[in-house]
Every structure is written in structure tokens, then in C-alpha cells.
Amino acid sequence: MTRGSTLPAHRLPHLPGRVAIPALPEQSRTSRTPKSLDAFNTAPADDARHTLLTCLHSLHWSRRLTDHRPYPDVDSLLAASDEAAYDLTSGDLAEALAGESLPAIPADTYEAAHMALDAAHAAYEARFGHVFVICVDDLPKNEVLDHVLAGIRSRLTNDPEEERVVVAEELRRLARGRLLSVFSL
Known about the structure:
- Helix 5 packs antiparallel against helix 9 (160-182), helix 6 (90-98) crosses helix 9 (160-182) and helix 7 runs parallel beside helix 8.
- The longest helix has 23 residues, at 160-182.
- It is globular, with a radius of gyration of 17 Å.
- It has a single domain (19-182), classed as Oxo-4-hydroxy-4-carboxy-5-ureidoimidazoline decarboxylase (UraD-like).
- By secondary structure, it is mostly helical.
- It is built from 9 helices and no strands.
- The N and C termini lie far apart (36 Å).
């Protein structure tokens, strides 16, 4: 499975760590992204799905959340998101993983750290066949690299089924954090 660029995604400065799919041009994003829960609840289905796909690149997940609108409050949306994420099939997970980028690493990180991270990502992708995902939302920036490296190393010992469960949980956590960001909560 190819990831496109020959440079690791964590070294590409234009890829923010919390974006599931490439960012849309500013004018398009502005016109299509509901800014509040009320706007999301009443937006055309295509616009609602578009917004959700920026949080998790799963058509099944985005359709399910869109079809269950309106949500009375953000907690209801987050609960629905969690439930839909728990129900992702292997195919849904593969689709979501294909839209993920590696966690963003601070630009001033030493070259040796980038080399270690490159090697760890290569080993992970060789073992499991997809990009490594981990939610680092609550971590200080200076702890992200260590957390990512430790996560990869510990998860390399998982069997594929154990790792599928971990990946599903990490994607769920990423989607939840991204939803909160989209609605500026």
C-alpha cells in the first residue's frame, strides 16, 4: 500500500496532525462547513457528510451520523460518533486509515529522532499494512515524539486482531477530538 509522497507524512509541514483528509481550498471549506451544531443539523446532507469526513474518512461513519440528525446537543453527537466508530467494519477501518496522516512532530525535532520515527513507522506499516494512528490531543508538544515512538514500539508486539481493536479506538478518539475542533468546543 503506497502513501503517495516519498517523504514521511510527519515531515511534511503542510499536513496538520488532526486532519483526516487533505484540506479543501479555504473558500470551499468556508462555504460547506457548518460552524455550529444547529447549522450542522440543518445543512444539506452532502455538506454534513463533507464536514464529518474531515474528522474521520469513513463514508459509513459519516452517513450514519448525517442520517441521525438532528442532534439536541454536542454530547449527543459525540455519543453517536462513538457508537458509529465502534461499529466500523474492517473495510471501514481500512478506508479511514487510508485518509489518515502520521501524527505531526515538531519541526525543530532532531534529525536522529526523525530517523528513529521513520524506522518505527516502516516497521509498523510492514507488520500491519497501514499507517500508524495515535491520538495525541491531550499531550504537550514536547512529549508527542516520545509518546508516538513508545506507542509504535509497544504496539508492534500486538497480533493483527489486537492491533485492529487498538486502531479502532484511536480512530474513535481522533474523530471525537476533531468533532470538538470543528464545532470550536
